[in-house]
Amino acid sequence: GAADIRYLIKYGDTPTVIFGPGLTEQMHAANEWANLDDLITAVKVLALTILQWCGWE
User: Fold this and answer.
1) Which of 6, 8, 18, 36 could connect to 12 by a Cys-Cys bridge, CB 3.0–4.6 Å?
2) Maximum separation of any 2 CA atoms in the chain, in Å
3) Which domain holds residue 40?
4) Sign, CA torsion 33/25/40/4
5) Per-residue pLDDT of the chain (57 residues; tens, 9 = 90+)
6) What is the pTM of this model?
């Protein structure tokens, strides 16, 4: 795969998830793109996940 997540799992014994906007059919394709609304939603979800992980309420 094209993601470095495999190193965190294999060598770092680190719990991991992979997440992002767009369609799975387009991942890593030459014409890969993401809808702006989907990108904004992904940024919000990621930011809130980080805040929750750090104990923010």
Assistant:
1) 8
2) 40
3) 5-53
4) negative
5) 567 888 988 899 888 888 889 888 888 888 889 999 999 999 999 999 999 999 987
6) 0.68
Burial zone of 30 (CB within 10 Å; 0-12 exposed, 13-18 middle, 19+ buried) = exposed
C-alpha span between 3 and 24 (Å, rounded): 14
Total domains, the chain: 1
Length of the chain, please? 57
What distance in Å separates the CA atoms of residue 43 and residue 20, rounded to the nearest whole number? 9
